[in-house]
Amino acid sequence: MLSKFVDPEVARAIDALPNHINEFGFDPWGFNPEQAKIYFSLAKLIFEYFRPEIHGIENVPAGRCLIVPNHSGQFPFDGLVVAVASLLRGDPPRLPRAMAERYFPTLPWVSESFARAGVVVGDPINCRNLLMDDNAILVFPEGARGCGKTWQHRYQLENFGRGFMRLALQTESPIVPVAVVGAEESIISIHSSKTISKLIGAPYFPIHPLAPILGPLAYIPLPVKFHVYFGEPMKFEGPFDDEDQAIDVKVKAVQDRVQEMINDGLRARTSIF
Amino acid sequence: MRRVLITGIAGGLARQVAKELLSRGDHVVGVDYRELKNREPELKDLEVFQANYNKTVIEDIFRKNSFTHVLHLGRVGNLKESSGKRFDLNVVGSQKIMNLCVQHGVTRLVVMSTFHIYGAHPANHIPISEEEPLRAGMDFPQLADAIQLDNMAATWVWRHEDVHVCVLRPTNVIGPMLRNTISELLRQPTIPRLLGFDPMMQFLHEKDLADAIVLACDKEQRGIFNVTGRGVIPWTTAIEIAGSKSIPLPSSAVRFAVKYFSALPEYLVNFFKYPCVISDKAFRDSFGYQARVSIAQSIETTVAEARELARQKLLAKHSR
User: Fold this and answer.
1) What is the pLDDT of residue B135?
2) Whole-angstrom Cα distance, residue B10 to residue B51?
3) Cβ-Cβ contacts under 8 Å for A114 (sequence gap 6 or more)
4) pLDDT above 80 (res B266)
5) Are the CB atoms for B238 and B203 separated by under 8 Å?
6) Which of A99, A71, A74, A94 is nearest to A84 (CA)?
7) B251 chain-A contacts, CB cut-off 8 A
8) H or E element: which one contains A136?
9) Which one is predicted more confidently, B281 or A4?
10) In chain B, how many H helices and how many E strands?
11) What is the domain partition of chain A in residue ranges?
């Protein structure tokens, strides 16, 4: 019934993916291409709402890789846009497996639909297994701190975690730095309410400046324009279990590159819409 | 000739293992705290004792038979038994069996544990290997005896030089001869699922597990090993294969009902919410094990008899 909503472009791209599923159409994490087609068709509508300009998609290699963007905008629309861009504009099409917060499996429907669309719990063992299977991984090393950043910190990266770098070294995967410009303006937060976030068990709760007047309507993302820059793959070498200090140097190189690309993107942007 | 003791002989799995060993000419003795009813003709050479594993009768069974192999399959998972009784049978009883093995020169001990001790947890990665923490105990004290049994057996693996101990942690075991919760659930015409959740699950056919136990009995490798069947599917797909309708229920209501009204163990509810997918790579690598029954066959054979009975009931009703 739902298959009526499948976008032919999405279906073609998903059919072109390498097939790692069992006779019932599932991989061990619960990814299912047929249901993914429905979810990605929906995602494509959101993608088009932000009218993204995609640059450098040819930098996403064919084999295993880690796609590492900045994180912003309160809701993970940046992840969605990067994933849809990789799927529909990538050559060959890539379906990046997004590493999600550990609480996502506790949310009804979200847990099921995310899993069918290829999202997995952000855990080093999941990530390593998927990389060894030559998947593209979408990971936000800023984590929820990045997504929930407030207006005065826009386009300033939170410190990247080290996990992604150790996995890249261990599995010899290239890292594709990505800058997403525009997501910061989609939903504006001036403050994160600790009281409410604790109450609902979320990592942060954004307060929109217009929330007192508009209520929940303030959280509808503005139709801003996204600019997505995929940078050249970065290759790192060295022991994956090196001391934190040695890993930090490599992490910083990626973080600096993403920051540079953001700054370039901001300079090139003429309007937020 | 090998002289084999099998505990839990009243269960469908132990009987299957006994048949296989008898057909190969082993001398097999079975023991259970329950009565062995309706003995199949293939089991006519089986010697059976009804005894609690924690009582002295079992000592005499060891004295009379100089066992070479012991297959301890008789873990009590049934929560209808009080937790005190389960502790006595599973922990005290298993310890007694281990000590008897050491005293009487048994060379091989296979202990049946379960994957339930890993727990179905939202942060579970996929797949889970044998080294992972056993999260189930954190939320569900009902599993304490199962975890302690597994822990005890794990220490025996390296503590006792002469007894080669192998611990098996199988995933959901299903099959026509089994009356466990998951098999009985699949036989229902309408099967509940939790609203908004559809975790990935594995199923292991009783025949494959029986083969795994026989394989473990034949070889000498020590260690703890996960055992799985073929492939991973969501619970709703399993329901479809079983030919049943699924009924979605809110998980809070199910948890409440299970806690106060039913014999279904509470910890099982989480297995229908979060995935607990295990890897049997270690077992395949060191024993050459390979599950043979496909997921579809496993589920279909498990429910076949119940479906046939339902069909006959329907026919009888209409012909009346």
Assistant:
1) 86
2) 12
3) A100, A104
4) no
5) yes
6) A94
7) 108
8) strand A136-138
9) B281
10) 13, 13
11) 2-186+221-266
- Annotation: CATH topology of A2-186+221-266: Glycerol-3-phosphate (1)-acyltransferase (3.40.1130)
Q: How many CB atoms lie within 10 A of CB A52?
A: 22
**Which amino acid, residue A111?**
S
Instruction: Mark out chain A residues that contact chain B at CB-CB < 8 A.
Output: 22-24, 26-30, 102-112, 115, 120-121, 123-126, 129
Minimum CA–CA partner of B122 in chain A:
A105
Euclidean distance between CA atoms B209 and B193, whole angstroms: 26
- Torsions phi, psi of B148, nearest 5? -70, -40
B30 contacts B49 by C-beta, under 8 angstroms: yes
Structure tokens at B105: 């020169």
Looking at residue B267, its pLDDT comes to: 80
Coil vs helix vs strand at B207: helix
User: What counts of helices (H) and strands (E) characterise chain A?
Assistant: 10, 9
Enter the tokens of residue A111: 């847990």
Of the candidate ranges B28-42, B213-227, B275-289, B292-306, the one whose mean pLDDT is the lowest? B28-42
- Residue A79: exposure state from Cβ atoms within 10 A (0-12, 13-18, ≥19): buried
Measured CA to CA in angstroms, residue B33 lies from B49, B51, B58, B220, B286 at distances of 8, 5, 11, 28, 33
Q: What φ, ψ does residue B287 adopt, rounded to 5°?
A: -115, -10
| Tokens of residue A104, six digits | 């996502």
Distance CA B6, CA B111 (A): 10
pLDDT of B72-95, one tens digit each?
Answer: 998 887 666 677 888 888 899 999
Helix (H) or strand (E) holding B117, with range, is: none
List chain A residues with CB under 8 Å of B232: 22, 26-28
According to DSSP, the residues that pair with B27 across neighbouring strands are B3
Chain A residues close to B123, C-beta within 8 Å = 102, 105, 121, 123
Rounded Cα distance between B95 and B305, Å, is 38
How far is residue B255's CA from residue B269's CA, in Å, rounded to a whole number?
A: 7
Amino acid at A216: P
User: Which helix (H) or strand (E) segment is B70 a member of?
Assistant: strand B69-72
